[in-house]
Structure to design on (230 residues):
């Protein structure tokens, strides 16, 4: 997103080959300029969806999580601007469970309630996997939460119906989809470890992919060849 024009060219190039194009971004700092805001919105119109990582709905918490030393609220402000301009259906907002910052039930509820107050329609809660010392599991917060089978949406599953924590207001979140991204493995600088349930999840997914074949992505090589596999 530092070069939105190049991203736009890439999207236009791969559009004939795929059914859906989704972008993941933490938003570039240059979005405080009106021209860059316009380019981002123009790009959203070309995409089928976009995941915007903001760290936290609360700027001070986001600063702590991202290690920023100066006040910085432009991510939160820009998301709210997108909603005001009618782009709420084009993106989801994601935040991470992080020890010392977002690790308790009331903190997660505050994040969800604030995003709902903004008018966000799609929210994703992430379990960190690359920093085991900061990892917080969604089951640590809501032990009785029903998340479906191991391969439900890959490593992700939606919260809906009876899967909601009982004391989380359904009225406030009516029409909002909340996705939980489970950690598939814990990775640090030295180790790569997995629980037995995580191993089973990946084994089942690999078998499923082998039997069905993965059709949801394409690989474009330098010579222009487009294939379903690496």
């Amino acid at each position: 997103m530092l070069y939105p024009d190049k991203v736009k060219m890439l999207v236009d190039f791969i559009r004939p080959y795929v059914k859906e194009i989704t972008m993941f971004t933490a938003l570039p700092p240059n979005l405080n300029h009106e021209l860059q805001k316009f380019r981002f919105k123009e790009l959203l119109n070309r995409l089928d969806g976009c995941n915007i990582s903001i760290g936290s709905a609360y700027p001070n918490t986001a600063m702590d999580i991202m290690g920023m030393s100066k006040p910085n609220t432009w991510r939160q402000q820009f998301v709210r601007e997108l909603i005001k301009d009618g782009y709420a259906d084009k993106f989801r907002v994601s935040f991470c469970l992080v020890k010392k910052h977002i690790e308790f039930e009331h903190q997660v509820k505050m994040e969800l309630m604030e995003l709902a107050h903004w008018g966000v329609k799609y929210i994703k809660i992430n379990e960190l996997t690359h920093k085991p010392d900061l990892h917080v599991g969604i089951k640590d917060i809501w032990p009785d939460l029903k998340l479906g089978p191991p391969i439900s949406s890959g490593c992700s599953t939606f919260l809906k119906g009876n899967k909601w924590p009982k004391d989380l207001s359904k009225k406030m979140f009516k029409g909002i989809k909340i996705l939980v991204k489970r950690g598939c493995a814990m990775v640090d600088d030295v180790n790569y470890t997995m629980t037995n349930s995580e191993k089973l999840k990946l084994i089942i997914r690999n078998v499923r992919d082998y039997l069905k074949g993965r059709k949801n992505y394409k690989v474009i090589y330098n010579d222009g060849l487009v294939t379903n596999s690496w």
In short: Strands lie at 22-25, 49-55, 92-97, 122-127, 156-159, 177-181, 186-187, 192-193, 219-220, 226-227. The first helix runs from residue 4 to 14. The longest strand covers residues 49-55. The domain at 4-192 is CATH 3.20.20.70 (TIM Barrel).
